[in-house]
Design a protein that fits this description.
The complex is a heterodimer. Chain A is α+β, with helices and mostly antiparallel strands. Chain A has one domain: 4-Layer Sandwich (Glutamine Phosphoribosylpyrophosphate, subunit 1, domain 1). Helices cover 31% and strands 26% of the residues of chain A. In chain A, helix 2 runs antiparallel to helix 6, helix 2 packs antiparallel against helix 12 and helix 7 packs across helix 8. Chain B is mainly beta. Chain B has a single domain, classed as Pectate Lyase C-like. Chain B is built from three helices and eleven strands; from the N terminus they run βαβββββββββααβ. Chain B is globular. Classes of the chains: A alpha+beta, B mainly beta.
Amino acid sequence: MDEIERMVNEVDEKYREGNVRIPSGCAICGYFSKKGRALPAIDAVDAMAYMHDRSNGLGGGFAGYGIYPDFPDHYAFHIFYDNEHAREETESFLKIRFDISNMERIPTKKVYGISGAPLIWRYFGRLEPEVKAHTELDEEEYVCQTVIHINTKIKGAYVFSSGKNMGVFKGVGFPEDVGEYYRLGDYKGYCWTAHGRYPTNTPGWWGGAHPFNILNYTIVHNGEISSYDANRRFMEIYGYKCTLLTDTEVITYIIDYLNRKRKLKLEDVAKVIAPPFWSQIEKMEEKEREKLTTLRNMYASLLITGPFSIILGYTGGMMALNDRLKLRSMVAAEKDDVTYVASEECAIRSICPNPDRTWSPAGGEPVIVELEKEGR
Amino acid sequence: MEIDAKGMHFSELDRLVKGNENDIIINNVMGQRYIAAGAKGKRIVINGIPGNALGAYLNDCFIEVNGNGQDALGDTMNAGTIVIHGNCGDTTGYGMRDGKIFIEGYAGYRVGIHMKQYGSHIPKIVVGGSAGAYLGEYQAGGIIVVLGIGSEDRKCLGDFTATGMHGGKIYVRSRFVPEDLPPQVDVHKVTDKSELAPLVREFCTYFPYDADILLSHDYFVLSPSDACIYKTMYCNRSI
């Protein structure tokens, strides 16, 4: 798209996240091969089409893991730019810090229903040894802070994917159109998650579509978090800046904080963000009761209230979780080595007509699947 | 008539269902919402997975689903019967006013919440398996039966059952006395099965279970106690 076309399509500042509130209802779906088989992305695209009416065309996106086997140890940065200036500034910022092996526009195709796209680039880079040697931060934290810096300090640039051997593809439109736009038919990975958006509270723009990502974590989310401000204030103490004013972003940072930094197991992360009620904890065996009491007291500000169903993607695993009251729908299924989760069973059946087992996970009960380790 | 719903949008399917004869088989259903919503006088067989709000506001149809139901099935239905040869999602029978829902397997969270009854209009839900949390929350009338088939060795009701219940009844086939109920709800062992028996017998006409055996077991019934001050405030008054 040239500059003139760009001016015509430029997103009106007032429609950015945070400037408008639209009260309103999303679809999520994910699948994971425990054997690490490369599953086609197109299944996720098709499954989302069966839940078309859960979205309203203001956001769709996908996250895939194991999709860049040629660059397994490089950070794959996917970045939206509002203009060439933002790209130049970001590239010079990145090139000082990363040894970039490959940079390109992410291949897209013209699709009816997708317009107003930003410039979309991807970079495969490793942290420069010189930088790595001199920073006081560990490598992942350094990369995390780099992403936060670009997103908050470089106007018109937004890193929407920053993990290794994984990637996020998202935009404004219906998910099946976004999938076609990014030519997802060309990608395969051991895990895919997907989202169709029906924005509540904020309008839709490319950066605000799901999945949200930091490092290797991605989140797709259906729901609305009423504890957003309490969660955001707590996370800001630890240097996370919520730039999008949407609730999903903060969930991504909470999981990064608890799992990567505090080293909590994901089962325990689930108990922090969707804990049992005190009345249920009181009836538990002593050991479990003490543990849950400690977790709830330590991370009281990370309790997420309000309705949600989320799918977390991470290197080597996937976790699905509902709020403790199960105020959003979630169905799970298994067939051979693949586990499926989705807002609606029809989405799963569209990919896998005859699963070995289907079930409805209870509120607050995480469904966690991980790659089988060799020798197990 | 038969309808092939493969790839069909719900609005088109709705048009076909409502505009056609009364005996309909719909094949390849995959998530289409609002099937038979508000419909009357039809007999519909659904092969596949119907979408959310199947039979919402139903005005007397007989619907049989060969597959699992999704969420909000029978939402606010007024009359008719829905039979599910499978499991059912959350908020099944939400705010039901009359009619019957029979589910072979388990049902999700918040089944039968806000059910109400008036005069001879008494809605009924029978769940073959177990039921999720908040069963009968704010129930104001009607009858819910949970048979707990396959859960004989454990509790078949979820947490927070009957929260805010102020009318109607919940029957449960179980060896375990339901615990942790809200203070305004009484639980009794069932001695008179005259209200329960026809529902269990009808359940067994759709699914391969023996009514006599099921009825020979222990049941408990949950109902609002006299301490429930709202019991006759909005409903259950003699007419």
